[in-house]
């Protein structure tokens, strides 16, 4: 493919887009002109074009450092489908194929080469690169460079040597999420202190953020959410491998097309699950955070967190795997105090005091987001230093503001019960006493004799869970991790038990009828029910299966939706569809035009 000197021409002719988004053009111009850049841009914001287009515009070969094999393959497949000479070198290649790629690189037949950091820093590979004309170095998932990054990878630290080995060649580092401390650490370690910094807005307005306090039946909450997703791709995150396997099995038993994914599985099994998900042959993956960083799948419509993540950086990145194509999607978090207790226990076991302090701060921010009673998007963006300036209108708090009530009597009973139990028991046992339960522990400690026994029997378990969580969040109670998460009173308790203070709490979300819950889920704005969209999706799936590539490599859902809306009848009209470039028009245009014509012809 001939190198095009105009970024606009490459954007239009190769990638099929009519205009740049946000700061893309400024980033591209910076790198094309030979300067370094640090780019912080949300998942789905178009980071890849920021180095792919300069590599096609500048002379030489672009070297892309990517952390995961699957991510390399997906991006190379997508570039090849668009007519770009791209390849990757990693351990998944046979010896013959690796030699063939090396020959293509030496013959100047490759414009973009993806490599892992370990390979890039091998002395012999660096010697090979010195024989080439290199257009740029792109370091993807750059937060891995930082010692504070939540996906720290030691090999990435060595990438700071690139500037010494290849002076004068522009370096662009890109990440979707990094707080200010991590950003500065990345720039310092990569020698990019003089680089131009681009920080795009963190807002992903197409994602609807939902948070539900965990009830006594969290699986039922998850199922209700997924019932509304329909036949769309979803990811469910759990913190432990055991939880992953349990939830996946229960989903399959409930009729869902689901599979587990975690680091304890055999490599072949993980690859099989991932490949089926990428090709739309599997609808739901239940996974630990090991799944996702290498998933370049734009049509995930729902992400659910069965357990609370440890920090907002991780939560933001994981929820960002929904709706990468910009179409409406949802993210649901189930939040329980047991998650907080478990996370704090892990933090307290850290030997590094500075790291303990940082992680504790991050956890506090995560809890603050989960317990927010104001617009969640404002809380989330505020953590990353961005002021939305208004409520978003697309989170659970904005869509259905929580009702508050005078909970002074509930708070009094809860705090007095903790006091009468000697501040030696956890939340569940305290609630059992309040509700007048007949358990072995209550009989063992004769807690049926305390004054508060049964005083809260008229309220449900979920009601009292909500009360105790809020009392902890507001500082009236604390959980002592060192003492088996027992509840302890605080100085704020005194005024409540003396009845000198009014306590206002939010009411638990009312349980909706099953039929309403099933309609409530993550089905995005009804576009998937569009008949022509489904016809085009079937055409795409057939082409993808024949070529053994994921469907999104052919066209994204956003492109199919634009196609269904515009209903092009000629090749020229097809080029007006977002995401259709010249190469893809020639390669795929005919069957899609035929499907549109057939759908518009009366039977």
What does this 3D model show about the protein?
The protein is α/β, with parallel strands linked by helices and 603 residues long. It is built from 28 helices and 17 strands. It has a 7-stranded parallel sheet, sandwiched between helices. Strand 10 (258-261), helix 12 (267-278) and strand 11 (284-287) form a beta-alpha-beta unit. The two termini are 43 Å apart. Mean pLDDT is 88; it is low at 512-525.
Provide the descriptors you would attach to this structure in a database record.
globular, 7-stranded parallel β-sheet, single chain, 6-stranded parallel β-sheet, 17 strands, 28 helices, 603 residues, alpha/beta
Give the DSSP E fraction (strand runs of 2 or more residues).
5-15%
Number of helical elements = 28
Form type: globular
Mean pLDDT: 88
Q: Tell me about the biggest sheet?
A: 7 strands, parallel
Low-confidence stretches: 512-525
A few lines on this structure:
The chain is of the alpha/beta class and 603 residues long.
How do the helices and strands line up, and which of them pair or pack?
Elements: H1 7-13, H2 24-32, E1 37-40, H3 47-57, E2 61-65, H4 69-81, E3 86-89, H5 95-106, E4 112-115, H6 117-120, H7 123-129, E5 134-139, H8 162-165, E6 171-175, H9 180-190, E7 196-199, E8 207-213, H10 218-227, E9 233-237, H11 241-253, E10 258-261, H12 267-278, E11 284-287, E12 300-305, H13 312-319, E13 329-335, H14 337-348, H15 353-370, H16 376-383, H17 396-399, E14 404-406, H18 408-420, H19 427-434, H20 440-444, H21 461-473, E15 477-480, E16 486-489, H22 493-497, E17 504-506, H23 514-520, H24 531-547, H25 551-554, H26 557-566, H27 571-574, H28 582-600
Parallel strand pairs: 1-6, 1-7, 2-4, 2-5, 3-4, 5-6, 8-13, 9-11, 9-12, 10-11, 12-13
Antiparallel strand pairs: 14-17, 15-16
């Amino acid at each position: 493919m001939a190198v095009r000197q105009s970024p606009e021409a490459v954007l239009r002719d190769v990638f099929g887009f009519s205009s740049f988004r946000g700061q893309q053009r400024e980033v591209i111009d910076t790198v094309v002109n030979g300067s370094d850049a640090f780019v912080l841009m949300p998942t789905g914001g178009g980071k890849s074009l920021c180095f792919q287009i300069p590599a096609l515009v500048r002379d030489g070969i672009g070297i892309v450092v990517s952390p995961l094999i699957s991510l390399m393959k997906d991006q190379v497949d997508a570039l090849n489908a668009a007519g770009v000479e791209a390849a990757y070198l990693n351990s998944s290649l046979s010896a013959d194929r690796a030699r063939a790629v090396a020959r293509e690189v030496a013959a100047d037949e490759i414009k973009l080469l993806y490599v892992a950091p370990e390979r890039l820093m091998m002395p012999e590979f660096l010697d090979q690169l010195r024989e080439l004309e290199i257009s740029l170095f792109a370091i993807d998932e750059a937060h891995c460079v930082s010692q504070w990054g939540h996906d720290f990878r030691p090999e990435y630290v060595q990438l700071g040597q690139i500037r010494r080995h290849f002076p004068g060649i522009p370096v662009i580092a890109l990440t979707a999420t990094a707080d200010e401390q991590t950003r500065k650490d990345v720039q310092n370690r990569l020698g990019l202190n003089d680089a131009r910094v681009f920080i795009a807005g963190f807002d992903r307005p197409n994602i609807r953020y939902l948070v539900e306090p965990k009830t006594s039946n969290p699986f039922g909450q998850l199922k209700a959410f997924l019932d509304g997703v329909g036949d769309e791709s979803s990811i469910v995150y759990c913190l432990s491998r055991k939880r992953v396997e349990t939830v996946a099995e229960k989903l399959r038993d409930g009729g869902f097309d689901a599979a587990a994914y975690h680091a304890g599985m055999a490599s072949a099994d993980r690859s099989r699950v991932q490949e089926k998900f990428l090709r739309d042959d599997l609808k739901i993956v239940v996974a630990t955070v090991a799944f996702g960083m290498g998933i370049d799948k734009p049509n995930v419509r729902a992400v659910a967190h069965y357990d609370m993540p440890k920090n907002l950086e991780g939560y933001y990145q994981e929820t960002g795997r929904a709706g990468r194509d910009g179409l409406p999607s949802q993210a649901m978090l189930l939040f329980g105090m047991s998650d907080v207790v478990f996370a704090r226990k892990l933090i307290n076991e850290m030997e590094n005091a500075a790291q303990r302090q940082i992680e504790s701060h991050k956890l506090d921010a995560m809890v603050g987001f989960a317990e927010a009673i104001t617009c969640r998007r404002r809380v989330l963006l505020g953590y990353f230093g961005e002021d939305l300036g208004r409520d978003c209108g697309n989170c659970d708090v904005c869509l259905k503001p929580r009702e508050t009530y005078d909970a002074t009597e509930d708070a009094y009973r809860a705090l007095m019960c903790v006091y009468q139990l000697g501040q030696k028991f956890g939340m569940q046992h305290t609630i059992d006493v309040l509700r007048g339960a007949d358990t072995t522990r209550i009989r063992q400690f004769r807690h049926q004799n305390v004054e508060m026994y049964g005083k809260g029997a008229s309220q449900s378990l979920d009601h009292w869970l909500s009360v105790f969580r809020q009392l902890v969040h507001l500082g009236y109670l604390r959980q002592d991790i060192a003492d088996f998460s027992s509840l302890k009173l605080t100085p704020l308790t005194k005024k409540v038990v003396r009845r000198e203070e009014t306590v206002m709490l939010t009411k638990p979300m009312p349980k909706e009828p099953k039929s309403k819950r099933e309609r409530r889920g993550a089905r995005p704005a009804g576009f998937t029910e569009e008949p022509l969209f489904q016809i085009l999706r079937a055409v795409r799936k057939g082409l993808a299966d024949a070529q053994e590539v994921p469907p999104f490599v052919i066209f994204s859902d956003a492109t199919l939706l634009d196609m269904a809306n515009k209903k092009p009848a000629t090749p020229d009209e097809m080029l007006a569809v977002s995401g259709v470039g010249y190469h893809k028009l020639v390669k795929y245009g005919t069957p899609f035009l035929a499907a549109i014509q057939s759908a518009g012809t009366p039977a």
